[in-house]
């Protein structure tokens, strides 16, 4: 007994044929409703903060807000004197008035500046022409980016007769990312749709046969976005999830549709009437599509094990779009085939070829499985080799293109300011003690520009300014460790570790933006083994239920890990080390943020299993019919490989179009997924699968009993 009973699917196919008008009417009505909901989903997406709930930095921010009414700045304004320096009396007066105006703005809790905080060197550029205003805006990311900043930034950046003002800081960087990511989507889709139609026409040789899979993909995209509308009230869905939803929706919709249409063509070619051909397609291809969708959705569902809204949003998006693809392929498409199926059939009624290029390739590989498989493995390992140099880091404004306003602001700050006051590390304590000694020790750390405390400001072990007791008043005490610009650009996480290594005279919590990034990265990396275990375990169970084999899921897992290694090798070589940065137009930072690779791990693994399921379904079907593993592999590859290659090429194109994006996160997702899909649909499925199945022989199907083959009967008769 299998997970999905095949007779039930066949009955479903005949039902969809009989009720095709009703099914199509309901499908059209659903599309209209889904379109309305999808429009609301797009406008409701946001950019989640990189934070680890419950971490030390998270608790530190809560303590700062509760006990001292302060916290990390959410944004900054870079103020440039149009003439003279920021120390000129007229400029100082204008600067103080600007600071006060920002502080009075709706939604702003705090606003401090070089002029209101006692002229610290950390808030003044080295040439004296620029100064910073630091602003704290309480509330969640959606409130800050959609309610406060759109009003505040345009008003303040008008500047004055004496001052030029630019906006920057983390919230402004991510706010500016949202429209760019959406524009990236529009640009990519304008490339994808016509190219996908051309590729489908070249494969199907019928205009309608090329159009129907694209419409199925669009249906999956719209339905997936509509399903996300039901999640938005309860979860923060990242705007990057839109790109994933649309890329996967179109790609999976086309894949699933192609598989069903291909089976419909085969059934028709064998003499079945249209109703029987549709039922046969739903029975065989529909079962495979359901297993495939379950595999992809399960791979993405493991992201729920991570307590981060940014990554969980991709799980919601992926599952929603898979559901949309399954509805399009298993429910709506059969009704379409029952209505206009004749227009999807090939013009020439050529008999199906039982032998051809892929059949010959499989037999050739299986004649020398060690040599063929060994050479393919060596090739993939060479491509994966850069993965050994992977270095995790944190994302910053350089995810944006150089012309982005907030990135330009941050570049000026990096180049002209000695320290990063806005990215200070904050140490919070409920008690007090030797604050001066602790601040002195912290100020001696490499990468620390200054330590501000109630006892005074310290730099390089010396007291350089009096303290500002009013700033630090509250229950207990807190200190601000201001990092140098070089330390933040190099490795802020290492600086946080150094600060935490200094023995405090009282219990402290370490917070601030660098600590948040460090805790976020540590939480993601620490949970990676759990994500891997869940992903491998769930997909193993699904493949076992499909094949009733223990060996085949193990083999599939090993091959998918190999394709993932190639993908990560490409990510490191391109986006970490900067190769092709000139062609793609991004700025390499020498590290990769762990969030995107983990997301891509789950997506790529699911899509790799997608093609594994497609191919294995044909091989298993042949094996069930003949009991001959080699013949089943050759016949399965002959029937499945052309479809898998075409589908993989279109899906790779869908992702590769995002290489035109201006946000490097989106580029990384597109390029990495395109590499993974192409490698998986070609080298792995065409060479490594046949070679490993040939080497495993009868063990492929263990613990199933070995079937008696025609070859066995001939051998026995001869004896």
Question: For the residues shown, what is the average pLDDT?
Answer: 86
Percentage of β-strand residues: 5-15%
Low-confidence stretches: 1-5, 708-719
- Assign an overall shape: elongated
Q: Mind summarizing the main beta sheet? A: 6 strands, antiparallel
Structural class: alpha+beta
Strand order of the largest sheet: 8-7-6-9-5-10
How many structurally independent domains?
3
The count of β-strands is 10
With helices defined by DSSP (H or I, 4 residues minimum), what is the helix count?
A: 25
- Rg is 30 Å
Q: Separation of termini?
A: 37 Å
Helical fraction: 55-70%
InterPro entries: MMPL_dom, Mycobact_MmpL, SSD
Keywords: Cell membrane, Membrane, Transmembrane, Transmembrane helix
Pfam family, one: MMPL
GO cellular component, one term: plasma membrane
Please sum up the structure shown.
The protein is an alpha+beta fold and 719 residues long. 65% of the residues lie in helices and 7% in strands. The strands form two sheets. It has a six-stranded antiparallel β-sheet with strand order 8-7-6-9-5-10. A four-stranded antiparallel β-sheet has the order 2-3-1-4, sandwiched between helices.
